[in-house]
Amino acid sequence: MPDFREIGRFLVTGVVATLGNMAVVWLLRGTWPLKPALAAGFVTGMAISFVMMKTFAFKAREWSGAQGEMLRFLIVYAVGTGCYAVTALAAEHALVTLGVAGRIAALGGVFAGGAVMAVTSYVGHRHFTYRRSPAGNATSRAR
């Protein structure tokens, strides 16, 4: 049975990390060029996401294995991003083929890709980054 509270915490974490990313870009954009502002926002969002995923979403309180968790977190993020891109492009193409207008098809692709990334990220973090011990607690696996 899925833990819907955990899934809810996971989704809240994603929203907060996205808002943190956007806030940093917005704040820096007035004085920084766009690319460095985007990079700073990305790093901020990733840091917020890692800390909140660990402590809030998956309740992995032990910090001794945080380096290994960070590596696994980045792997899951990279796989999720790849799934997002492939899905978004495929969905957009399929929608255009069905006669949907280009801008609407692109938006549909973004939503489809985002949904796939959310699922792959949750499953990856649940079973790889912050897997549960037999007692049901999130564990750190130092490697």
The gist of it:
The protein has 143 residues and is mainly alpha-helical. Helix content is 77%, strand content 0%.
Could you describe the 3D structure shown?
There is one protein chain. Helix content is 77%, strand content 0%. The chain has 143 residues and is mainly α. It folds into two domains: 1-59; 62-136, no CATH class. The radius of gyration is 17 Å and the shape is globular. The two termini are 29 Å apart.
Protein topology:
Elements: H1 4-29, H2 34-57, H3 66-97, H4 102-129
Helix pairs in contact: 1-2, 3-4
Order of helices and strands: HHHH
Largest sheet: none
Using the alpha-carbon principal axes, give the shape: globular
> Unreliable runs, pLDDT <50, ≥5 residues?
none
**Secondary structure tally, helices:** 4
Number of strands: 0
CA-atom Rg in angstroms:
17 Å
The span between the termini is: 29 Å
What is the subunit organization of this protein?
single chain
Identify the notable features of this structure and list them briefly.
single chain; 143 residues; 4 helices; globular
